[in-house]
Automatic annotation (TrEMBL):
Any one Gene Ontology cellular component term annotated for this protein: nucleus
Domain BUB1 N-terminal: 3-169
Protein name: BUB1B kinase
Biological process according to GO: meiotic sister chromatid cohesion, centromeric; mitotic spindle assembly checkpoint signaling
One Gene Ontology molecular-function label: protein kinase activity
Domain of life: Eukaryota
Gene3D superfamilies membership: 1.25.40.430
UniProt organism field: Centropus unirufus
InterPro entries (alphabetical): Bub1/Mad3, Mad3/Bub1_I, TPR-like_helical_dom_sf
Keywords carried by this UniProt record: Kinase, Transferase
């Protein structure tokens, strides 16, 4: 509020000083930026308010406001071109350094060098700082160029095979056709690898497979009927032993017509005496089937 009031009622000779202090205070109060700082809106207001005052076109403070505002623009290169066309900061080295760094980050080294050269021709201040940044830029570009020339070969194995061919006397070649021919017994490169891989695979397979299997495989076509095992039913020599258990009742008729009486813990009657509630279940109207040959007890 104090800065806004000072800007509104300012009557001094240097309004840029108020905007410069306002921006620096905002950056210190909100170091992480964000919408709370409202820094982009403050910078936009500052550059527009001072745009008609050409006395600030060569002032580093005014150029610094423009460059900070360019960080919030979608295309900062357009802003730098605008500053160059309006002759804002063209005598300052900071404009050319910032402009060239953005071009270098995008891989446009040729354009970045042109920007540096123009700044050097204009003798932008401080000139020694501009020359130092230009030398560093040339060093980085030279290093990247050398790294691009020293790319490793794509296939090192192919170069090794071409330099030192491998020969084997066991890799035999066959002749196709009816005519008789003599083929050399040497292989080089990938052909030798293929033969060696096939041979090693056959060796491992022969070592892993046993000579005689430890079990016989049943063949239903060759086996006769007598050789096929048949399961025969045999009677039990003795019945299974009875399991000892507790609270087991002996089997008997369960529809004898007796009534089951259940006593629940009822509420106390008003007279003080306890009474049981009798619940009677009717006798079922069917008779369970019992085999005549079944024994009474197992």
């Amino acid at each position: 509020r104090e800065f806004e009031s000072e800007i509104r009622f300012y009557s001094g000779d240097d309004p840029l000083d108020v905007w410069d202090r306002y921006v620096r205070w905002t950056e210190q109060s909100f170091p992480q930026g964000g919408k709370e700082s409202n820094l982009a809106a403050i910078l936009e207001r500052a550059v527009k308010a001072l745009n008609n005052q050409q006395r600030y076109y060569k002032d580093p403070r005014y150029l610094n406001l423009w460059l900070k505002f360019g960080n919030f623009c979608n295309e900062p290169l357009d802003l730098y071109s605008y500053l160059h066309s309006q002759e804002i900061g063209t005598t300052l080295a900071l404009l050319y350094i910032t402009w060239a760094e953005v071009l270098e980050a995008r891989g446009n080294f040729k354009k970045a060098d042109i920007i540096f050269q123009e700044g050097l021709q204009r003798k932008a201040e401080p000139l020694d700082k501009l020359q130092s940044f230009h030398r560093q830029f040339q060093t980085r570009v030279s290093r990247q160029t050398l790294l691009g020339l020293e790319e490793p070969p794509e296939d090192d194995t192919a170069l090794l095979e071409a330099a030192e061919p491998q020969r084997s006397s066991l890799a035999e070649l066959k002749v196709r056709g009816k005519k008789k021919g003599i083929a050399p017994i040497s292989r080089v490169g990938s052909a030798l690898k293929a033969v060696n891989q096939t041979r090693s695979f056959q060796t491992v397979t022969s070592q892993q497979l046993p000579n005689k299997p430890g079990f016989a495989v049943f063949d239903e076509n060759s086996a006769s009927g007598s050789e096929v095992p048949v399961l025969a039913s045999q009677p039990w020599m003795a019945p299974p032993a009875a399991r000892a258990g507790e609270n087991e009742l002996s089997a008997g008729p369960w529809n004898s017509g007796k009534l089951l009486t259940l006593t629940f813990p009822p509420q106390r009657p008003r007279g003080g005496a306890t009474s049981g509630v009798e619940v009677s279940y009717p006798v079922p109207s069917f008779t369970p089937y019992v085999e005549e040959s079944a024994q009474q007890q197992m």
